[in-house]
Every structure is written in C-alpha cells, then in structure tokens.
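Supplementary Methods. Inverse-folding protocol.

Structures were first reduced to a discrete structure-token string of length 431. This string, shown here, constituted the complete conditioning input.
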C-alpha cells in the first residue's frame, strides 16, 4: 500500500506485512461539541485502521484529545477543566454515533504531563530550547530542518510562529520560536509544576509527548487536517526530531470540509455539529458523504450533496431488500487495487456501485461493512411484526379499505419505519 506523504511530496510505500503500522492522528481541542468537519480525520483514521487490519497488518492507532489549550481557557474562564472534561465526553459520544469503533489509545494532555516535562527538559539540555520569564521556548535556529514539512524553509517570515496561543513575543530570541511551556497566568484554573516554574504545556509539545508515549520514538503514519501542517506539525516534528527521535515516517494531511461554494440552507447551518448532522441525516448518509471525496481533497458540504449521499444509501439499501444471496468469496483484490493506491475512497464507492449492478452481493456486503455501512444490508430486514402489519395493509389496500390501510401505515411509522408501495408489493425502510 502507498500513501501520499506531505514531507516528501510523493507516494510512499508502507512496510511489508505484518507491519506494525503505528498511527498518530491529531484529535480535537475540546471546548464545544465537534463539528462535522472535525469528524473527517477521525473517520479517515478509523477507516484506515479497519482496512489495514483487514489487510493483515498489526495496527496501533493513537488519537489524542487536546484538553489543555488557550481556546479552552478562553471558552470557560475559571472553569476550563470542567469544560474540557465535559467536551471530551461529548467528543467520544458523538464519534461513537458513527459506529466505526474507537482508536486503540485516546490520550489526553492532562494525563501526559510527566512525559511532556521530561521532553522539554531534554530539549533544554540539548540546547534546542531555552527558559525565559517562566516560559520555555523552542530555539528554531538550532534546528536546520525547520520548515521542510510545510515547504516554508528559507522563507524566514513565513516561519514566524503566529501568536494564536498568546505567546509573549518579547521573550523570544527569534520570531520563529514557539512556546513549549507557558508560565501560569491569572485566570487559568489549571496549573502544573515544572523545573521552570508553575504553568502548563504548549499545544505542540503535548502531541509530541503523547505520540511517543503510545507509539514509541518512530512510527509509520502521522495524520491530521491540512490546517495543522504549519505550525502544529512543523513544530511537533522539530521537537521530536530535535530530541533525537525519528518520529513519523509518513505525514498524511486530509483536506478541509468547506461550507462555501453554495448557499447553505438555514437548516444545514444549524446541523453542522456532528451529533445534529447524524440525527438529521443518519450515520450512513454521513459516512457515504465522506466516502465521496478523496481524503487529500477538500470536501464540500451542502444540503444537495447530503441528499445525494442519502440517495446512494437508499440505493444500496434497496438492493438488499428481500435478497437471498449465494455464499461467494468477496473480491478483495478489486478493492485493494483502489484502497492500496493512496486510499482512494471515491473509487471504492464506484466499485461498490459496480458490484451492486453486477449482483456481487457478498463483495458488496463485505466492502460496505468495512466502512461501517454493513447496516445498509441489515436494515433491509424489518422485524417480523412490522412485516405482518405491512402485509395486513397490502390486503386492506387490495380490498379498497383505505382507512384501515392508512391506520396501519401510521402504526408502522410509529415504530420508526416507512412502508413504500413498489411494483411487486411493498418495502419497509427505516425512517
Ligand atoms: Zn497534534
């Protein structure tokens, strides 16, 4: 299998079976319910894990929860710890709705402080970091590789670390430097001890420490959104390699979810939190929506594309209605051809439709299940009592007792199903 790597700007082969394949994906900063766009790296990482395991690899996935960050302090002055704890639970609840399972490790920054302090100490001892006014800064000038990941090397100005994290510019020896440790400030309700005084870690060092704690000094894949290449991942790389670890071998950056390009309806604007989107559209529609775009490309969200994704879900669901299939071997190689080539999910989706039209039921079931869509086949079989109600309704219609037919339709709908009249009878579809 090969994947596009941001660092080398080309396709890189994964090691031979059975690996291991160790993966670290940057998870959310927890201060609110996650939005559907935040779910993209989660979905990608879980799909990758499932496919690689299916391929015979020994996979370990760590996906962190950033629960110490300026955004959290700002969102809940004096109560950031409570907010972060609640929002961490929301994140797990909301991503659980997708039915893709969970990463092997979901470390939190608050649980990794000793490792973070140790890593900063190593950088200070090695001359790659310096304490200043209770803070500690990374000394970019001491790390010549700085800027290579983001392609900004040589462009001094483009490498100035933005002060989104409220850093004290006057303490920096170089505007490219960034904070590893920040002295405790008035109004921050969480604080930890360190050799440089009380404070808390910077965002970037948290991920370096968490990745190494669970995956070791070298691992195969580091993932996250495109928006993290600079400065977050550039800084992670500098910290970890500066401290002597090889760190990630492949950097995979997913494209952003974009709401632009089409006027959004008010309803969609209101359902952008993942939880609401799943409630409104159903988990299968959301997963099919993510399948439609290659992970490296932007993905455009609108009512129209969600409606198209829902129509595709219906097409697959209808295919399985009342279908008896012969046991056959899934055509694994056909799917491997597209997934092993930079994990091309739009081509996988096209293959699923091809299998559907060619009546390759076993392959289709297997392929959909891999992406968490096996329920499209299961949902086709409604509970027996509902089927009995629908049959009664068909008889009522046949004898032109439309009042009784309507009553039975209502009874079926009350149980969350919709009965539809089709050429050769009826079908039951979950609402
Ligand atoms: Zn990170």
């Amino acid at each position: 299998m090969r994947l596009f790597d941001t660092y080398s700007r080309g396709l890189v082969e994964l090691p031979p079976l059975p690996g291991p394949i160790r993966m670290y994906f940057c998870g959310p900063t927890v201060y609110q319910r996650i939005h559907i766009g935040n779910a993209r790296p989660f979905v990608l990482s879980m799909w990758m894990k499932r496919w690689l395991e299916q391929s015979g690899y020994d996979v370990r996935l760590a996906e962190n929860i950033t629960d110490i960050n300026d955004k959290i302090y700002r969102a809940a002055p004096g109560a950031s710890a409570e907010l972060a704890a609640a929002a961490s639970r929301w994140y797990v609840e909301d991503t659980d709705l997708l039915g893709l399972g969970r990463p092997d490790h979901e470390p939190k920054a608050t649980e990794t402080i000793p490792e973070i302090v140790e890593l900063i100490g190593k950088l200070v001892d090695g001359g790659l970091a310096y304490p200043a006014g209770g803070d500690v800064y990374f000394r970019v000038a001491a790390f010549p590789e700085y800027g290579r990941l983001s392609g900004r090397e040589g462009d001094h100005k483009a490498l100035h670390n933005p002060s989104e994290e409220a850093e004290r510019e006057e303490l920096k020896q170089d505007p490219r430097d960034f904070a590893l440790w920040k002295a405790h400030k008035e109004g921050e309700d969480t604080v930890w001890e360190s050799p440089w005084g009380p404070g808390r870690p910077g965002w970037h060092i948290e991920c370096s420490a968490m990745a190494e704690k669970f995956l070791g000094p070298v691992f195969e894949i580091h993932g996250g959104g495109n928006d993290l290449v600079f400065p977050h991942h550039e800084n992670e790389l500098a910290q970890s390699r500066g401290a002597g670890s090889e760190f990630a071998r492949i950097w995979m950056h997913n494209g952003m979810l974009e709401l632009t390009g089409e006027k959004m309806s008010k309803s969609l604007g209101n359902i952008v939190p993942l939880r609401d989107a799943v409630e409104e559209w159903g988990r299968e529609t959301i997963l099919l929506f993510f399948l439609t775009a290659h992970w490296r490309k932007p993905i455009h969200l609108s009512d129209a594309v969600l409606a198209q994704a829902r129509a595709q879900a219906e097409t697959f669901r209808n295919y399985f209605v009342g279908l008896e299939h012969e046991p056959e071997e899934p055509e694994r190689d056909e799917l491997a051809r597209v997934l092993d080539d930079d994990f091309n999910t739009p081509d996988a989706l096209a293959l699923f439709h091809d299998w559907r039209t060619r009546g390759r039921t076993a392959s289709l079931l297997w392929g959909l299940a891999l992406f968490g869509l096996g329920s499209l086949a299961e949902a086709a079989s409604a509970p027996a009592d509902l089927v009995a109600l629908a049959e009664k309704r068909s008889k009522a219609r046949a004898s032109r007792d439309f009042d009784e037919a309507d009553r039975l339709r209502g009874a079926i709908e009350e149980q969350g199903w919709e009965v539809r009249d089709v050429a050769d009878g009826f079908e039951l579809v979950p609402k």
